Amino acid sequence: MSEENVVLVTGGSRGIGRAIAREFADAGAYVVINYRQRGEAAEATLGEIEARGGRGEICRFDVTDRALTEREIGGIISRLGRIDVLVNNAGVTADNLFLMMPARDWDLVIDTALGGFFNVTKPVLRHMARKKSGVVVSIASVAGLVANRGQTNYSAAKAGIIAASRSLATEVARFGIRVNVVAPGLVETEMIAHAPVEMIKGFIPMGRIGQPEEVARVVRFLCSPAASYITGQVISVNGGMA
Ligand code: NDP
Fold it and tell me: Model-level pTM?
């Protein structure tokens, strides 16, 4: 990661996104930290990065708002001159059995993960295609690979990201752009605050949940020259869960 690299991390203010932002900043990149509503978390992430000698900025937009997202990404590119790495990390859960699931919870989860994938990736890719280089990594989930009761919306969104990324990788390889996916298992963030962690640990061969940094390191590897021949792949980071 060279100093002039600009990395955009959606949902970079908390949890896994925060660890990813920190990981890239530690490697010398300029990190754009996106968030939706919790400004104090974004400020804290930027503060941490700057305290470690890193550089970056905060950019607020809701990835489900297509027009706003396109405008803000246009602003980043004209302000900083480039986006070299895009990490599609923003995501939410709204778990329920399918028969009980309100339509709004189906829409929220799909619109954030899969709609967000389209809304953010399209304007960034247009720019990357023009400069003939770039890397996109999207955060899916083990739930996009195997069945998970109570997560039909989340599974559909994450499986969609996986399938879309594989196809997209074949379309943009000719522009020097690589597209990959990281599929975490259970990771210690606010997202799993209400999950039955002790019970789930029984299904994890490594017997523990993951840390955000363990996902972040894989994301950075996929964006580094060390991964120069890897595209269209899904890398699981799940303690052996699937
Ligand atoms: P958190 O809930 O801790 O953080 C979510 C982040 O996404 C926040 O920065 C939040 O910003 C942002 N966000 C949510 N909706 C939007 C939106 N519409 N537009 C812009 N930003 C948004 O989640 P995690 O860190 O746990 O999860 C990060 C990613 O990893 C997600 O895609 C998740 O599905 C995936 N994942 C997580 C796992 C886990 O066990 N934690 C396991 C597998 C995958 P704000 O706070 O401002 O709303």
Answer: 0.98
